[in-house]
Design a protein that fits this description.
Two copies of one chain form a homodimer. Chain A is of the alpha/beta class. In chain A, 45% of the residues lie in helices and 17% in strands. Chain A folds into three domains: 4-47, 434 Repressor (Amino-terminal Domain); 57-154 and 284-305, Response regulator (Rossmann fold, 3-Layer(aba) Sandwich), CATH 3.40.50; 156-282, Rossmann fold. Chain A is elongated. The relative contact order of chain A is 0.12. The structure holds a DNA duplex.
DNA sequence: ACTTGATATGTAACCGGTTACACATTATGA
DNA sequence: TCATAATGTGTAACCGGTTACATATCAAGT
């Protein structure tokens, strides 16, 4: 790789002049500019970002801290983040923490020492001193966060309500629910919303992690202990898929005997049989907004901490019975 | 953040001594070492990786170039890569290229100027000059690659054969196939293997991209034009899921009327109804091996170009009829 | 006692950029 | 015409590490 010095020599100017044309600042004569540009082209020069970083204290890097990219909710988020970061000339560093504070900590120091310009964090530990003492701009994503950290989330409570209302509207009378991991505030809100509308029409409820395997045993438990019910709301689409599978195993027909609503709106919901009715979060949009917000923070366009709350929508597929069409 | 100079002053030594204790090389007296360590602890010092990078020309960064993290095959790969990279003190930079050469190019220069230590590439364009002229160690993953680039792939041809043999063993006599994108060599081999065993028992075949939507229309076409068939091999699990969904729409019972085998072994296969029999690639293992290989290359442990071919296995679930159990 | 090698430490150059500052030249306005 | 501002360019300091090299001390070997 050519260096700025080589370019300077070839163009018969000083490194300062080369730097000026690269960054388009300061005064440069037309001839000098042309000579430099020719030299750059001839040498196929691209400035060393490490060197630039050292001086400017910016890296063009964004740290992305999420529990597990393997969880089907996160790839879309990551994609959105990477897309907009890239459009603005930033690269993203991927970190999987499995929600473990120790891992987060070690990533945090690694990212800090490489001078990332900002952080997008999907963590429950944002109130941890490790985060608080960081002077790096950051925004929390899909997580409710204690103090003065920016956040973008979607309206889980309303999503829960919407699920219950939909089930009720579709004629369900005996409701069931499988909630998510209880320490996830953002997931708990879905349950809260659902429960508030369901009231005493709730006949059974349990909890599960977001792994399919656990979801399957949770579904089995629910069927074993609380059947019959005719409307079920799952805290995410993976759990809903498990319910669907368990339903066919038990010859419970969906949606005739049991209507099911999932949560998230990931692609998996299209692939089940029948395709899953679900409460869709605007996942890509969430990633996009979080990144745009972070970029604003980095460029100091805005310093007032904000929480961005995005609306959810009902995606009606075939695990509920359409009213008005009266299938 | 504290700098090495501050540490040096506090410990009453020179920066060289601090550097020596940090890197554990050169001679350092016990007292000096202790003083430095105390100063480091007191100041919470961590060396600036950017500065170190500039001198050493290593960054601790690995570039991960893949088409689209949103495609459910890739998150596991990314996770494996990130896991082993992290275990060795490296961070990974995520790049989504959508298979577009222009995007790859722009990522390549970005990654190069930030001095990534290595590259894992999932691309069809490895024979492009952009890659060839790079002096960065790299390994291709899940892609067949022209010249002297290391690669790790799994045995697609054998996987295709295995799929056909399994279907035949399970009593299928009229075989169908939905192939993947034709420019993907690694996917084409699955088709080749399948076709070689199927021979003239093949009654119908079509192609599809790996998006669920397209797969669904491909499945419809196949049913429309070539039904009946009783054994189907799909080039990946997403396509297989589409076939399953289309089958229930047409009241075709799986596996009684039609047996289906997918390919990849992603988690989606567990979530369909019925759960999908599939040819499993050792996805995590592939990512792991690729990264370990890359790390060896980076550390110059080995310079002979290698192709690592990993075996695939049959994961028997419920879209095929178990022989010997005669369900 | 003197050479030699091991131990210990500091100074300064270097990595490849950016930019403050000095200096020179040219244009502008009174 | 002369002061002043705008334009153009180079030198060198700086960012925060690493390490070659110089220098010094001390123990061991002859």
């Amino acid at each position: 790789m050519a260096t700025i010095k080589q370019v300077a020599k070839r163009a018969n100017v000083s490194v300062a002049t080369v730097s000026r044309v690269m960054n388009n600042n300061g005064y440069v004569s037309a001839e000098a500019r042309e000579a430099v540009e020719r030299a750059i082209a001839e040498l196929d020069y691209a400035p060393n970002r490490v060197a630039r970083s050292l001086f400017t204290k910016t890296s063009g890097l964004i740290g992305l801290i999420m529990p597990d990219i393997t969880n089907p909710f996160f790839p879309q988020l990551a994609r959105a983040i990477e897309d907009v970061a890239n459009q603005h000339g930033y690269q993203v560093v991927l970190c999987n923490t499995d929600e473990q504070l120790a891992k987060e900590q070690s990533y945090l120091v690694a990212l800090q020492t490489m001078h990332v310009d900002g952080l997008i964090i999907t963590t429950n530990h944002s109130d941890n001193p490790n985060y608080e003492k960081l002077e790096v701009p950051m925004v929390a994503l899909d997580r409710i966060v204690k103090s003065g950290i920016d956040a973008v989330i979607s309206d889980g409570y309303e999503g829960g309500r919407l699920a219950a209302e939909t089930l009720l509207n579709c004629g369900a009378t005996r409701l069931a629910h499988i909630g998510g991991p209880e320490q996830l505030q953002t997931v708990k809100r879905r349950t809260d919303g659902f429960l508030d509308v369901a009231g005493d029409r709730l006949v059974g409820m349990t909890h599960s992690s977001f792994t399919f395997k656990e979801a399957l045993t949770a579904a089995q438990t629910l069927f074993d202990e609380h059947w019959p019910f005719d409307g079920l709301f799952a805290a995410n689409d993976v759990i809903a898929a498990a319910v669907l599978q368990e339903a066919v195993r038990r010859n419970v027909r969906v949606p005739q005997d049991l209507q099911v609503i999932g949560y998230d709106g990931i692609e998996l919901g299209e692939m089940t049989s029948p395709p899953l009715t679900t409460i869709s979060q605007p996942i890509y949009e969430m990633g996009r907004r979080a990144t745009e917000r972070l970029l604003d923070l980095i460029e100091k366009k805005d310093t007032v901490t904000k929480e961005i709350l995005l609306p959810v929508t009902l995606t009606e597929r075939q695990t509920t019975i359409r009213k008005g069409h009266d299938t």
